[in-house]
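Friendly challenge for the regulars: who can give me the structure tokens for this chain first? No prize, just bragging rights.
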Amino acid sequence: MVSRETPDSASLPPVMPEVAEQVFPSERIPTIQAYAVSLATEGVVRGLIGPRETPRLWERHLLNCAVLGEVIPQGATLCDIGSGAGLPGLVLAIARADLQITLVEPLLRRTTYLTEVVEELNLTNVEVIRGRADVLHGDRTFDVVTSRAVAPIDRLLEWSMPLVAPRGALVAMKGSSVRDEITKAAATLERFGCAEPEIQELGVGIVDPQAWAVRVAWAGRSRVV
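First reply, four minutes later:
Bragging rights claimed.
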């Protein structure tokens, strides 16, 4: 829930850095600031984000997720699996009003929070679904399926590729071990008929530490799931 009261200053996130104006439209600045306050207050109280994350909320979480928008096509449909407190899905919804975003999260306390934030911030381009990714297998597909800190690439492929449209892609946020994960996922990539994964650098000059995404599309743009 976005707090309607003035929170204790100790629980507030740091002041928004100026660099945030490079990734969030000016009209969305109040929205991302409200979401930051919500994460630092309700998010911590509900156990959705650790209290030690509050001082680095902008650099480590909000900006880190926002720069994923650099590699998301205009007007795409996007599914964020294991959305948790809304990272990266809600951040992308705020930064990119052109996207239609589906947040998929199995835990009730998290989907309750996500639903409250979506309503209170009037994010009309977001839907929240309670369940695991496989509840949508065979039912829906998306231009982009994303995730952040959910699982190694081999498991992400199992959950995500059945949701990827024929001309779509898995675009998962990853850390510096992404190349090792790709190597270990070789058999799964071949089984699904995926193209060679692409490692994409995100937010150059905006985020520190550096952020990466791995993009996996269908080989020959042919969906085999």
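The first strand starts at residue 77 and ends at 81. The two ends are 38 Å apart (CA to CA). Your move, everyone else.
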